[in-house]
């Protein structure tokens, strides 16, 4: 995959608002595209040098999905395949978070926004965990959480994963509410994201709701 540097990041990108679909820097997100507007978006994106799509969470209580959270994460299309009926399976590799600016008017069927990458320069470089956290309590909590949700995971893969990949993969895969996913996205550091992840799993095991945490 070609490296993207801060100077390569465009000032305007297409936006894919998708509730619950969290993308984080250096993580990978598979997506299924079938709506005509997003098929057109993919066609246009593949013609650009960076091939970036911005993933943004719609506001939880926005009935029409038009209102979006102000921070999202851009991913580079690194792979795609077409099905017999014209749909596409694509993979996004997370590059950097961004802050939404003004929506760009135009004739495109999908939405485009001016974006600012300021404040997220560290997203383009790996963020190793600095405090050598003990994984055993996290795995114990995760096991109880997954059991409660009726889910399974590849424990060997998790145990072998580096800290950043471990935390980001769990943040993306756990079935949290949209606002909780947004909190994980906006965490200023990997340690903060890990602490937020632990809090959300503990809260879910106690039977709490996102509204109680707000």
What does this protein look like?
Residues 13-205 form the Lon N-terminal domain. This is Lon protease. Keywords: Hydrolase, Protease. This protein is α+β, with helices and mostly antiparallel strands. The chain folds into two domains: 6-124, Roll (Archaeosine Trna-guanine Transglycosylase, Chain: A, domain 4), CATH 2.30.130.40; 135-208, Methane Monooxygenase Hydroxylase, Chain G, domain 1 (Up-down Bundle). It is 33% helix and 24% strand. It is built from seven helices and six strands. The chain has a five-stranded mixed β-barrel. Residues 210-214 have low confidence and may be disordered.
Task: Give short descriptive properties of this protein.
7 helices; Methane Monooxygenase Hydroxylase, Chain G, domain 1; 24% strand; 2 domains; 214 residues; Archaeosine Trna-guanine Transglycosylase, Chain: A, domain 4
User: Which spans have pLDDT < 50 for at least 5 consecutive residues?
Assistant: 210-214
Average pLDDT reading: 88
- Kindly state the percentage of residues in helix: 25-40%
Look up the CATH topology of the largest domain: Archaeosine Trna-guanine Transglycosylase, Chain: A, domain 4
Strand content: 15-25%
- Count helical runs: 7
Rg estimate, integer Å? 18 Å
Sketch the major β-sheet.
5 strands, mixed, barrel
Under CATH, the homologous superfamily of the largest domain reads LON domain-like
Top CATH class of the largest domain:
Mainly Beta
Distance between the termini: 39 Å
* Strands, total number: 6
Class from helix and strand fractions: alpha+beta
């Amino acid at each position: 995959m070609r490296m993207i540097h801060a100077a390569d990041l465009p000032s305007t990108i297409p936006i894919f608002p998708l509730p619950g679909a969290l993308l984080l820097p250096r993580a990978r997100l598979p997506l299924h595209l079938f709506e005509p507007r997003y098929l057109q978006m993919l066609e246009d994106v593949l013609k650009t040098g960076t091939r970036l799509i911005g993933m943004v969470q719609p506001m939880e209580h926005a009935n029409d999905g038009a209102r979006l959270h102000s921070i999202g994460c851009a991913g580079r299309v690194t792979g795609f395949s077409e099905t017999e009926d014209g749909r596409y399976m694509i993979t996004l590799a997370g590059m950097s978070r961004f802050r939404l600016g003004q929506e760009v008017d135009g004739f495109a069927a999908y939405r485009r926004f001016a974006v600012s990458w300021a404040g997220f320069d560290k997203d383009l470089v790996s963020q190793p965990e600095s405090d050598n956290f003990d994984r055993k309590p996290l795995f114990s909590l995760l096991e109880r959480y997954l059991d409660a949700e009726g889910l399974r995971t590849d424990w060997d893969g998790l145990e072998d994963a580096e800290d950043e990949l471990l935390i980001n993969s769990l943040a993306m895969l756990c079935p949290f509410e949209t606002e909780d996913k947004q909190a994980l996205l906006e965490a200023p550091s990997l340690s903060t994201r890990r602490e937020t992840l632990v809090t959300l799993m503990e809260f879910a095991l106690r039977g709490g709701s996102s509204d109680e945490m707000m």
